Amino acid sequence: MTTNKRDYYNILNVVKGASDEDIKKAFRKLAMEFHPDRNRREGAEEKFKEINEAYQVLSDTEKRGAYDRFGHAGV
Description:
By secondary structure, this protein is mainly α.
């Protein structure tokens, strides 16, 4: 995992109460935009990793609950 402490909801551009489907849609859109095979701009790979990390937490009910309660310390 990266050491970046940005808010996972902000990274995926969703609100805190977003549905699983909204989170999945936001992840797919951003992943397509920043995937290293599709985007060669500087910083795209790091952004992709950040997006993936956010999705890994928010898509898992248990991890998301811990993140919502305790922030980054919960995950």
